[in-house]
Amino acid sequence: MSVMAGFFTRLAARIQAIDSPLCVGLDPHPADLRSFDRLRTPPTAQTARDFCLRLIEATADCAAAYKPNAAFFEVFGAEGWNALAEVIAAAREAAPVVLDAKRGDIASTAEAYARAVFETLGADAVTLNPYLGRDSLAPFLADAQRGVFLLCKTSNPGAADLQDLALTDGQMVWEQVAALAAAWNERDNLGLVVGATYPDALRRVREIAPDLWILAPGVGAQGGELESALRAGLREDGLGLLIPVSRAISRSDDPRRAARELVAEMRREAQEAHSFPTAPPAAVGVIPDANASTSRGLRSSELVRAGDWAAPLLGDTDTLADALLEAGCVRFGQFTLKSGLRSPIYLDLRQLISAPALLSQVASAYVARLAELKFDRLAALPYAALPIGTAISLQGGWPMIYPRKEAKEYGTAATIEGAYAAGERAVVIDDLATTGGSKFEAIDKLKAAGLAVEDVVVLIDRQSGAAEALAEAGYRLHTVFTLSEMLDHWEQTGRVPAEQIAATRAFLERK
After folding, report:
1. CA 307, CA 392: separation in Å to the nearest integer?
2. Which end of the chain is flanked by fewer CB atoms within 10 Å, N or C?
3. 332 — phi, psi (to 5°)?
4. DSSP run (H or E) holding 115
5. Taking a C-beta distance cutoff of 8 angstroms, is the pair 24, 385 a contact?
6. pTM recorded for the entire structure
7. Is 405 a catalytic residue?
């Protein structure tokens, strides 16, 4: 059975890739639709759809997720249902979708609701009411790739009527919900809804459920403060919090600018409150000739499928490219390659082992690529890809094996290290792709052991024929960067002298 990343693993990769915990609310209020429609005609399902599509287009490069509210579509009947499906499909081209439906029922009814949410509408996650207990959640939690946010301490003023009732042990109802959710989270796809309007409750939920993801509505129009929410809700790793914002973006004259300003504020506040996963700190080995300017330009047009949703090419690719340069993983000068050729550029990703923050960010880039693939095990190639593969395994939860360069002459005489079974599917992990030679050697060993191989994933494609050679043999190469993309960025920002860029491009053309 093939293993794919769970919902929250993919969400974490998205957030780390674009450095943003912003969840854009898609709430087509009737009043907003009248303002949106220049003709001021009565709101329709078509107007609601167009209103949301405009917001998706404006925020696709900085939204960690989208949260359409089902009620504003259901009010239009069958046409509204169709419009909601179109909005979800469009949103998933940019980021995962959390359907705000607050469902809750039992047995076959819950199963039907789950099929409607995940199969008919195509959402990635849904909000649920816990009042009917664990069996009412089971159909929604059956697939680890689908997420659930369970109502815990909601942001509305009337939340206290039931959620603040004290139990016999002194706990409030919402505290018990948090504890139950932590116990029920068997597939890493169960989170909680806790209003940013109640920072003390948010802090307490984080104590009760330190690992769970929290959807924290209420920032902005409902009075929740961003700084308080981040301080109370972030996990030890700086993740675990998704912050929905709707009206502050949708009612802005410029939704794109409003979203970007919100994300910038989130980054600043999170830096103050916690070690949020932003660009890694500069590492040793800075290139002497590199210019100190930085760039955070997102390439929103470069989309890659990530399961059923797409993320920008690592999101902020420029930040990662610059970090690799600063860490000495990319060097310019004159180098003798293994082939004997003299090269003006040298790629050395073995340096990642000395830069743990950067290694983690690189692993996140791989996770975003791997989330679209079907496989059972990672097969990391010795030696440079072994630490990378380990970091990916830890982030994505995928088991890892590796083909030895030579078979053991003692003990098991193994050619493949790690546990596996014949017939399973392995995805090859390496640091670079040049001609593809080392990939073919590894694939031959894996196939000889009874494993199936279809895909190879690398950080950088040197564009020296590997993609073509692999494709001709029936394998797919997936990359985070091509060398040309990195050169283009460094040329535009002046981080690498123009003559070194030109020399490297000339070298690539000769090859």
Report:
1. 16
2. N
3. -115, 145
4. helix 107-115
5. no
6. 0.60
7. no
Specify whether the CB–CB gap between 180 and 148 falls below 8 A: no
d(CA 8, CA 91): 17
User: CA-CA distance, 507 to 339, in Å (whole number)?
Assistant: 14
Query: Which residues have CB under 8 Å from 456's CB, separation 6+?
Result: 427, 428, 430, 433, 439, 470, 475, 476, 477, 478
pLDDT tens digits, residue range 155-210? 888 888 999 999 998 899 999 999 999 999 998 899 999 999 899 999 999 999 99
Joined together, the tokens standing for residue 378 give: 């990672």
pLDDT more than 90, % of the chain: 57
Contact 91, 49 (CB under 8 A): no
Which residues are within 8 A (CB) of 349 and not within 5 positions of it... i.e. 6 or more apart? 324, 329, 384, 388, 431, 432, 459, 460
Q: What is the CATH number of domain 303-510?
A: 3.40.50.2020
Closest Cα partner for 358 from 282, 298, 259, 459? 282
Please name which of 371, 428, 420, 423 lies closest in space to residue 399, comparing C-alpha atoms: 420
Domain range list for the chain: 20-273, 303-510
Q: What is the distance between the alpha carbons of residues 65 and 32, in angstroms, rounded to a whole number?
A: 21
Site of tokens 């043999």 = 473
What are the strands, taking DSSP E only, across 80-131? 98-103, 125-128
| Tens-place pLDDT, residues 446-501 | 999 999 999 999 999 988 889 999 999 999 999 999 999 999 999 988 889 999 99
CA distance 32 to 437: 58
As its CATH architecture, domain 20-273 has: Alpha-Beta Barrel (3.20)
